[in-house]
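#dry-run=false #mode=assembly
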Amino acid sequence: MELPKSTLHLHRKTGQVLIFALILLVLVVLAVEGCLRLAVKSGHMPDPGPGTNNADLNYKLPMLDQLVRVDGPIDCIFIGSSMTNDGIDPEVFSQHYAELSGRKVTCFNFGIGTLTGEIASGMGHILKERYHPAVLIYGTSARDFSKEMGARALRSDQWYLYMLGTWNLPGWLQEHSMVYREYLKLLRDMNPDNRQFVIKVRENTTPYGHFLVHPFVTQLEPGYSIHEQELVKRDFNGLMDLGRMNHNGIEVIVFEVPVHKDFLPVYVNDTLADYYRLFHDPASEILAKYQVPFINTVSGDKFTTMDDEWADMKHLNQKGAVNLSSFLAEAIWQLQQSGQITWSETNADH
Amino acid sequence: MPIISWQFGLFVVVVLAVYYLLPRKAQNIWLLTASVGYIATWNTFSVVVLMVTILVNYAAGLRIWQSSRKNPKWLWFGIAVNLAALFFFRIESSGYLEKMIRGILHITDTANAFELRILLPVGFSYYCLQAISYLVDVSHQQCEPEKDLAQFSLYMAYFPRLISGPIERARSFLPVIASNRIVDNEAVSRGFTRIIIGLIRKVVLAGILSGYIAKDLFSAPGNYSSFDLIFQMFLYAFWVYNDFAGYTSIVRGVSDLFGISLSANFDTPYFAHSFTDFWNRWHISLSHWLRDYIFYPFSRFLLRKKINPRSVLYLALPPLITMMVSGLWHNFGAFMLCWGMLHGLFQAAEKLMGRGKPAIKWEDRSLYKRLGTILLVFTGVVFTWVPFASGSLSRVAGYFRAVFTSHAPVQITTLYLIPLYAVAVNIALDWIQYHSKDELVFRRWPIFIQSALLAAALLAILVSFLGSQSALTNFVYQGF
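#status=ok
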């Protein structure tokens, strides 16, 4: 038998279906993408958010985009965990700061659940690049440095990695494709827990990102002693990275998020010495190295709270948030007066 | 290198590109080299075992042909070597051997004791059955022994089917390897259609379903309500089917691009109207192997022993034995024996109930009866998946105990709409294939519909790939 010259015997019609399919796919995706973008831009549809594995982040990012669209460039952004999310009211802060300085500033609370020191640094970079605020204020506590704290799910999130410079297709699509964002939202909405969470957040969050918590019964939660928690190096590295950002196109301020006075003995195991040794001193040392102001609320006696200002042992309620926000406005104004920070006009124009 | 990975895609493209440029003889050498290279990406131990198996069976095949049919000592030698190796690797990879040796040597300190565990060589249980079928076929003079070592090696090691089949027969596959291959538009279209269908099953459908089957379903069944337990087994049935059928479709599609057709392994099994029919539709290459080399010989043996062909013994024993062997082939454990036994008992019951009754053609039955029968068989199959999926008999007992006694609240929510959509797509896909009696019926549809379907399929595959890579690369039948 004669061998054929070649195994491959293809004629011109090869791949016709595939070519039509690809053209159709591109056309349909582009059409849907265009329609969705128009609908979101015109306000007919809410921006679904980037679809990360942090539900707070998915909600806060479109909120901040919307705020910037309506109010113009942002002056300062608060970051931190749920303790910051509940404990800072940016409107109160701005109002109090304006009373002191005579200057109106727009701030946004970007507190998101279980934000640790390491992720705070990443989010700091992302928010700086995206919104160019003049000041980044990080509300932190020893819990943000604890190995036991949260799932640290954002560490492996594709969008988070993409935004920090590790290119990946899902991350790119999450950032740039409304079709993909809507698809991820559809998946999230299938989960009733997530749906309920979004409803709760939507009903209780102000346009400036403050999650309003109303007073409820204060109960002591054991098991959070600093001795029972292993503070991890990568979170201190995150703090160091935030320090490096200071005076690098942005000013960074760090404050201690307070905890309830009955919780403090549990938190620090009856003595403040260990609190200083394990958390406060190393953090202060890092921040001092980069000339980052560190405002004390736990270890100092300048900030005090009443029982009715707490939602639980670690989270301030609405009243407590007014107290803390006013205190911070004053503290930051004093820092500005003493020349430790300059707080120039927003970087958005730069 | 898992089949569902960009590395495998790249590997296939490179192998194909070189393959098309080579003359036929060199093509086989190239395919063999690629196959050995492919298996080496898993581990070198698997390469060594494959080489030894090839050489032993190659030599045994020649010896069988040379010796007389009345003296089948080489046949039995070859079968014994293959079965002994399979038995050893099965028992060893299941951990029984280690346990036995520890027991004999009275080793209780497991932390400091020796490590004996060896992984089952990749694809061994599949190519071992191919080797046995080759020896039997040569002995029965249904095919001549392959004198070309490279061609015989390719028969054993051909990479698209190496990991998990289909199990090819020497009499049909060796001539394919020896013949000229032409890859024309028809073959390319067939191949790509199979790959796309396979990806839809494996990546999209099985990928979705796997996310909704609780990891602790059998270790902690008490955490779930009776409804959840049954519902998740229902999802498991569709997952295991799409996982394996998807894999088979992909490798058959890849092989089509080499101009080499691989046998079908699935034919809409959940539309089966009896348990015997189910095994003619599920893992067809294995069930036909079991039928030809265990069921038929055992039935003939019973007839030679003058057993009445209408007796309970004759009707029940061959399916029972065959399915129990099938269970042990899958995994060496009492739970798999139980799985095989259940299938054997169902088949035996079918035969006994049908004894003496006039056969009514399937097509002549009413729609309701046909639907009812299909549902009944499907329910029985789902029931048998419990021991298959559980991993031990105690877990099987725990699962069924929880089904009847669990007080856990029902966890079904709107979240479960997603796997139900996947099941609906699966049933629609199967129904189209079943109704048309053509797995590639889509190629006969108008070009616009084909393009629209392909566009939707590509989008679904892309989105699934973006979703979760880890869940996709795990392949349940690879373990066998």
